[in-house]
Amino acid sequence: MASSATKHFARQRLTALVQVPLTIWLVISAISLIGASREDMLAWVSTWWVAALLVAWFLSVPLHMSIGIGDVIDDYLHKKGTRSLTHGLNSIYALLIGIVGVTSVIAITLIA
Amino acid sequence: MSESAHQVKFIPGRNAPMSPHLQVWKFTVTMAASITHRATGIANAIGMLLLTAWIASAAISEDAFDAVMGFLGSTLGLILLVGFTWSIMFHLVNGLRYLAMDSGKAISKEAGNLTATLAFVASVILTGLIFWAGFTFGGAN
């Protein structure tokens, strides 16, 4: 793409578009899972298409939130050191959410 | 990045512009929607801890899953869930508004004010519907 700014802009919109249907689906699923036992939960997560959509969710969301929070950091933190440090923490947090989420989904498909 | 001869150097904390200005502003509903979009975005990122804990605990053990479900079903857990749900709903609806605006739709002042107001109203209605559905159809009762 033309520049890193264009890529940044496009990625934020692309992940947003992906997350609209995924979030609606996840909210409805969560409602239907209220009061579910761990076994019900494992059976649901390990359904192949549910696992695939959850992995898509745990890849898209960390990217979207790291870009969004990165923008907030750029707007409000002006000291170079603090800004760089916060950008680093933001990336680590997004990576952790993504890794734990994807790993959990894969682990469930293996144990269920 | 290419270095041009007339490039203006902005030094953060010295001459870089602040966005948005923190002292000079007036209340508009579009401004409120913009600030709320950022605030809910940050809240959603923190709320991902709950969602990730939910999936991860199911992967870990029966005890871990029961602990997370017990917490989410407690008074504090339910308050957090209502807040997280509203935060997601606002960010979702207002995000759709921004996607429409990015494609050139509803960008007049009137349309912007109307859709911003609708985003606030819709987010509250959707949150209400979700919890109504949860307590009616879910296994919570």
TrEMBL record, chain A:
Cited NCBIfam families: succ_dehyd_anc
Q: How does it sit in the membrane?
A: Multi-pass membrane protein
Subunit-structure text: Part of an enzyme complex containing four subunits: a flavoprotein, an iron-sulfur protein, plus two membrane-anchoring proteins, SdhC and SdhD.
Has UniProt tagged this entry with the keyword Repeat? no
- Entries under Pfam families matching the protein: Sdh_cyt
**Superkingdom of origin:** Bacteria
Task: State which gene encodes it.
Answer: sdhD
Localization of this protein = Membrane
- Write out the entry's keywords from A to Z: Electron transport, Heme, Iron, Membrane, Metal-binding, Transmembrane, Transmembrane helix, Transport, Tricarboxylic acid cycle
Q: In which pathway does it act?
A: Carbohydrate metabolism; tricarboxylic acid cycle
Q: Kindly indicate where the leader peptide sits in this chain.
A: none
**Where does this protein chiefly localize?**
membrane
Name of protein: Succinate dehydrogenase hydrophobic membrane anchor subunit
Q: Which organism is this protein's natural source?
A: Parvularcula lutaonensis
Keyword Transmembrane among UniProt keywords: yes
SUPFAM superfamilies from the entry? Fumarate reductase respiratory complex transmembrane subunits (SSF81343)
Cofactor(s) the protein needs: heme
Q: Which residues cross the membrane?
A: 14-36, 48-70, 91-111
Q: What does this protein do?
A: Membrane-anchoring subunit of succinate dehydrogenase (SDH).
UniProtKB/TrEMBL annotation, chain B:
Q: What is this protein called?
A: Succinate dehydrogenase cytochrome b556 subunit
Source organism:
Parvularcula lutaonensis
Question: Gene name, please?
Answer: sdhC
Domain of life here? Answer: Bacteria
Q: Which cofactor does it need?
A: heme
The protein's job, in short, is: Membrane-anchoring subunit of succinate dehydrogenase (SDH).
Q: Assembly and interactions?
A: Part of an enzyme complex containing four subunits: a flavoprotein, an iron-sulfur protein, plus two membrane-anchoring proteins, SdhC and SdhD. The complex can form homotrimers.
Q: Which UniProt keywords apply?
A: Heme, Iron, Membrane, Metal-binding, Transmembrane, Transmembrane helix
Q: Which SUPFAM superfamilies match?
A: Fumarate reductase respiratory complex transmembrane subunits
Membrane spanning residue stretches: 41-61, 67-93, 114-135
Q: Spell out the family assignment given in the record's similarity comment.
A: Belongs to the cytochrome b560 family.
Compartment list:
Membrane
